[in-house]
Amino acid sequence: MHMINISVEREREPVTDFDLSPEELELRREAARVAADLYEAPAQEWDRERMTFPNEERRRLGELGYLGIALPELYGGAGAPVMDALIVLEEFAKVCRPAAFQVFESNTGPAQVVAQLGTEAQKVEYLPAVIKGEASMAVAISEPDHGSAATDMRTKGVRDGDYIRVSGTKRWVSNAGHAELYLLYVRLSDEPGARGVGGLIVERDTPGISFGAPERLMGFRGIPSCDIYFDDVLVPGRNVLVQPGEFSKLFRAFSLERLGNSTVSLAIAQAALDRSLDYVRTRKQFGKPLIQFQSVQGTLADMIVQVDAARMLVYRAARKAGRGLPDSLEVSVAKRAANEAGKTVSDLAVQLHGGNGYTEEYGIERLHRDAHGWAIAGGTPTMQRIRIVSEKTGLRFDQRA
Q1: pLDDT in tens, the chain (401 residues)
Q2: Are 216 and 187 in contact (CB under 8 A)?
Q3: C-alpha span between 69 and 85 (Å, rounded)
Q4: In sequence order, what DSSP letters do the residues of 44-77 get, joined into one string?
């Protein structure tokens, strides 16, 4: 197994928003090969047994270079455009979402927020370990009574000398208990709404942190989730990533995570389509392959349109982002389209496979279960619709009114 070859200095042929260059195509082929070789076989078992992705496999991904594709060279990453990370992410997500999650969190998740917004000391302290696979970082936003209404959060941090004293509870934290580091969204002042919210980097082993029982989710298996309890947790003041009043910075950086989320949904849709095309060519009913039936052709056409549309929207946002942050509106549109494609195309795949689609053997039901989880994560499709209108018109809509 060889480390991926990503050179940030290479000259690429001009490409459109929707084409891949020869170098990108080679990156995709290599990522697909590695994902199939390492994770296609164990993926079904990890899902069935709800096994957490092994730390030794995370370190292997770090050694191969997949955890630092879009992170700065200065800290051990490749410094490549986000598009490169998304290409790899898609290929892993087609095969094994727990493995893809590692690529997702490091390249488009909270570690990327540290890279974009952190101090030099924070980057030096935390990014090399994430890039090597020695540690992972999860994001903690939602609370038991505040999911989509994130800025109503009650988890609070109060200055206590050189520390921030944190108390509260977080819920729906993917990789909770397993990740060594957390990007914690927390109320750092008494200002209402978003004006009082900031961000802290919190280490898992800090005294006062405890974890609830593991959630037993419909999908997202192999990616642990549980409540996190903060009981007068003292976080060093140097770990303040974003000050209160600067929530817009956090949210703009979070748009990169939503773009990664969109890519996983796209991968699920593409995998469901690919498996369906293979199946209807070989499966026979009434003496001929399923693909010969007009109703099947119509279903396939709808699936193809949804996948292609989602891909174009994801690529548009990624191309414009380059090595920086994407446009929030373009990401909201991409996420809405890709999330719906993942759910709808995987559902149609179940139908095309008939009874076989309802079994674990063909992997279609697993795609469909995961499609719903990735649609909810990072902002539900319903909230994306509201954001799209808000970002397009410049208007703000108070859901509390």
Answers
A1: 456 666 444 444 555 567 899 999 999 999 999 999 999 999 999 999 999 999 999 999 999 999 999 999 999 999 999 999 999 999 999 999 999 999 999 999 999 999 999 999 999 999 999 999 999 999 999 999 876 666 788 999 999 999 999 999 999 999 999 999 999 999 999 998 889 999 999 999 999 999 999 999 888 888 999 999 999 999 999 999 999 988 888 888 889 999 999 999 999 999 999 999 999 999 999 999 999 999 999 999 999 999 999 999 999 999 999 999 999 999 999 999 999 999 999 999 999 999 999 998 899 999 999 999 999 988 888 888 888 998 899 888 776 66
A2: no
A3: 6
A4: HHHHHHTPPPPHHHHHHHHHHTTTSTTS-GGGTS
The answer for residues whose C-beta is within 8 angstroms of residue 292's C-beta and 6 or more apart is none
Query: How many residues are given for the chain?
Result: 401
Helix (H, G, I), strand (E, B) or coil at 163: strand
| Tokens read off for 68 | 């630092």
- The whole-angstrom separation of Cα 139 and Cα 230 is 15
Tokens encoding 241: 């990533």
Dist. CA 236–CA 227, nearest whole Å: 22
Q: For residues 181 and 176, what is the distance between their CA atoms, to the nearest angstrom?
A: 9
Domains of the chain: 22-135 (1.10.540.10), 138-245 (2.40.110.10), 248-393 (1.20.140.10)
